[in-house]
């Protein structure tokens, strides 16, 4: 397995927003800077290192104070169980993405996108509606030495037409978000895309409409996660009934 040296992180040129996110960020990780990010391996995907929150709430407070107004929660500073499981699956089954154009929908930290790039995807695009996530994705891609395009937009009213593979880690995390993700997933499946979700069983994956490809035991609890999830599945849609 690759040993992470921190070299791409040290060499990267960061934007102003990235410099704000990365203020006091550390590699190797240091303790005692609880409103900062620290670079570390992802528990289920140690091939990938990410800038992760020491304490998401304190990081959020620091960024809001610096921004001067409310910001979305920094979901991008946590590798969510669904994303960890999906990234693990992609690295263990590289033929799913190898040589193909891949979209990581609701990318957060960029974990799944980075895994797809490492697994040999031809092109990888990471999408999120949070501009801070986009800055983090680019910093994390640099740190892992991979190229990822980014789109900060809501793409869920389309069918992801530019992409052969659509990956979505932990995108069914509230009823409201699931209500826009599931029709998008259905449209993408119907036009022939390969669609894979990582989902820790939050209750928004419709039974019978998503088939389980594999289930990982003991997805580790991470900072910002809303309760222990000990089983996380990789799912794929099976029914056009998802389409609206
Ligand atoms: C629970 S996090 C999961 C992040 C990442 N996929 C992972 O598994 O670690 C959900 C992400 O979805 C993003 N999001 C929510 N609604 C979205 C939408 N309509 N389009 C794109 N991203 C969205 C949020 O900004 C957040 O980064």
UniProtKB/TrEMBL annotation:
**What is one Gene Ontology biological process annotated in the Swiss-Prot or TrEMBL record?**
methylation
User: Lineage from the top down?
Assistant: Bacteria, Bacillati, Actinomycetota, Actinomycetes, Micromonosporales
| PANTHER family assigned to the protein according to its UniProt record, in alphabetical order | ELECTRON TRANSFER FLAVOPROTEIN BETA SUBUNIT LYSINE METHYLTRANSFERASE (PTHR43648:SF1)
Q: Which domain of life is it from?
A: Bacteria
Q: One GO CC term of this entry? A: ribosome
Q: Which GO terms describe its molecular function?
A: protein-lysine N-methyltransferase activity
Q: Which organism's genome codes for this protein?
A: Actinoplanes auranticolor
Ordered alphabetically, the record's keywords are:
Methyltransferase, Ribonucleoprotein, Ribosomal protein, Transferase
Q: Which InterPro entries match?
A: Ribosomal_L11_MeTrfase_PrmA, SAM-dependent_MTases_sf
**UniProt keyword Transferase, yes or no:** yes
What is the name of this protein?
Answer: 50S ribosomal protein L11 methyltransferase
């Amino acid at each position: 397995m690759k040993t992470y040296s921190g070299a791409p992180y040290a060499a990267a040129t960061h934007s102003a927003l990235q410099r704000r996110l990365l203020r006091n960020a550390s590699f190797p990780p240091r303790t005692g800077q609880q409103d900062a990010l620290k670079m570390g391996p992802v528990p289920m995907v140690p091939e990938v290192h990410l800038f992760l929150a020491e304490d998401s709430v304190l990081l959020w407070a620091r960024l809001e104070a610096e921004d001067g107004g409310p910001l979305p929660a920094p979901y991008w500073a946590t590798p969510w169980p669904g994303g960890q499981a999906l990234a693990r699956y992609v690295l263990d089954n590289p033929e799913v993405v190898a040589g193909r154009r891949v979209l990581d929908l609701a990318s957060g930290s960029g974990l799944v996108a980075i895994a797809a790039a490492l697994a040999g995807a031809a092109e990888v695009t990471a999408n999120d509606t949070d501009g801070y996530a986009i800055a983090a994705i680019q910093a994390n891609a640099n740190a892992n030495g991979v190229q990822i395009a980014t789109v900060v937009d809501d793409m869920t009213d389309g069918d992801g037409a530019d992409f052969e593979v659509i990956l979505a880690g932990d995108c069914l995390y509230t009823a409201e978000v699931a209500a826009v993700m599931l029709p998008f997933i259905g449209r993408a499946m119907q036009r022939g895309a390969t669609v894979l979700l990582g989902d820790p069983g939050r209750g928004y994956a419709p039974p019978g409409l998503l088939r389980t490809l594999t289930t990982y035991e003991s997805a580790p609890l991470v900072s910002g996660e809303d309760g222990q999830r000990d089983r996380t599945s990789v799912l794929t849609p099976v029914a056009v009934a998802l389409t609206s």
